[in-house]
């Protein structure tokens, strides 16, 4: 056992000895010329074009990028400390390299079986950046030895402050910015001396991975990295933890210096993509000719449409005040997945709206725009657009055991509806109930196959996932919808068609590969057929809305709570367009839904892209159209008065007759069921509906069903558990429930159903609801239900039964809490 423990240590020590030996060898044989090493040869520009040869962006001197030299005194102390804490905590004490860090890296590399850590100090990074040649990116022991030797020589030649100044002026910080001055102007539009603590920490964190931590394209990753830097500064004693926490929560406002660039967000995404496609060295050598997928003519139209609609939303009218919205993003994909237009914001250069942040790749809550994938998972499990579902007040339990009670956009419940009606009408309660039926994990499993990888905490996000309770990128969501348009074959968007070097050699050419079929094409068609059904959504969205086009198109909207995010994503057989509208800082808009905020942009872009009508959506083999009862979704019988033709997977076509409707004979004079004594001339026949238990109370409240008096209390509590030993209690709400108000729903519609059970009330008397120790409502006869308008605060509800003769009886109190604003997807 001792031998097994010692062997890895000996290997690590051997590796370290080899490195040191290499350093000593390099001292004899490797010359150094600092002055020569710190000069840069000008490299030819690389050019990024659209698909028709229009120049989008010229990368000037890719070897140098933007450079602005500053003295160490011009760099804020916080930025210097952030760099040292993050990159090399022993910078002022080490000889240019850290033996302890090398040992730690050797252990990590040994365990991983490959090089995962280089343990480079600030001095080593300067040596690698300025003094090594084309081998600087190699991961070999000899190259590491060379780097360490150069770092030792730098330490012997220059002061530590000189080395830190070189680092701050020469390291690459992404966004074509070399040095902290260029980075400060490139990200924040101001000189480095004006940066605050939060901005310093963000820039210091970028150097480790300029692509992954670029805040303009990956703001969430940059924010996480910023938090890490601030915590390291606190650990080193540069700042206290309270200051780190305040800086981490400070909103960032990004804006670079304007320079010539068309489609800037797209161009910056392409520049990142070039590194992945041909490598950093090829980009540094320059001279690249890059043909992209963008159509500049369409891009110009898209930018104008976005800007014009935002201006219209912010214009005050007699009917409405300004909507307080200043940002939007749009993605346009063709049927092959090529990005033909991409608008990241209305103005890349406007710092007042954080215009440099790419809204197409930023994470936002999608609201109801995520619902179609819940329905796709349900259709794949055997349900159909005809399957009925209860859209009634329902208490769900969260992972922590707390009550969760979703509400609909219109504040109403719709009873028993088909899945077609529920999806087209974007009913929240039905969507949550459906996800509860098929299992929460079904949704993230499905969207992951379609390219959305951010629904990765379903156990925490719970049933609210289907309402947009997690964050997605517009770019990914649009691609997922494009996969529905492609009959369930995964569509992976791409930006670059080809890359050639200065000699004309093709370094990269996009080749379409066979697509992975990630969803049954029949299931994809069922979702498409619902989203493209204007009649099904008319009950909620009306006719001739911004969702309607003069050709077949599938579309879904989404609005998050407080109107923070508006979405509209839709497609035809030829194009897919996704639109997000909101504010980059997450501040709420004023009364702007997906239909009024994002849908008009989507509508305009769809009209622009379709110069001719697209082909209609075609049903694939394996689907059958069957006439069914509109309410039950089963084969209609003679009593079924509402019927429609619906699509089914062939193996799931209904075979059973409707069991909800029956023809009954009744006495035309009394309205009661006919008996043997009822005269023939008074006998009449009508259709009678037997409602499922979960919607029975809803049907009673609307006069669609009646219940004999002795059964009133069981109808009212339907699905709720009761204790038969109690004779007086509140069936709804449940004790300990928490309700959250929504700004999406009119105040008058945000009501709580109060339902009472009183088994002794048949003897007469009054049943009273006491609210916060005051008499609020009373009944003299069943049904014992009433709606209470929600008010923020903690409330105590109880019942008191006052019989005509006898003593007053009281129920156990129920305590509920009403709070404001719950993140929730809407229409």
Characteristic terms for this protein:
single chain; alpha+beta; five-stranded mixed sheet; disordered C terminus; disordered N terminus; 827 residues
Summarize the structure.
The protein is of the alpha+beta class and 827 residues long. It contains 25 helices and 31 strands.
SSE diagram, text form:
Elements: H1 2-29, H2 34-37, E1 46-49, E2 55-59, E3 66-67, H3 77-87, H4 99-112, H5 122-130, H6 141-157, H7 160-170, E4 177-178, H8 180-188, H9 197-206, H10 219-235, H11 241-248, H12 264-278, H13 280-285, E5 289-292, H14 296-313, E6 327-334, E7 339-343, E8 363-364, H15 371-380, E9 388-391, E10 396-397, E11 403-404, E12 415-418, H16 419-424, H17 428-438, H18 442-449, H19 458-461, E13 472-473, H20 474-485, E14 496-500, E15 506-509, H21 521-531, H22 534-541, E16 554-559, E17 565-571, E18 575-582, H23 599-609, E19 623-629, E20 643-649, E21 661-667, E22 683-689, H24 693-701, H25 712-717, E23 728-732, E24 738-741, E25 751-758, E26 766-771, E27 774-779, E28 785-789, E29 793-802, E30 809-810, E31 814-820
Parallel strand pairs: 1-5, 3-4, 24-31
Antiparallel strand pairs: 1-2, 5-14, 6-7, 6-18, 8-13, 9-12, 10-11, 14-15, 16-17, 17-18, 19-20, 21-22, 23-25, 25-28, 26-27, 26-29, 29-30, 29-31
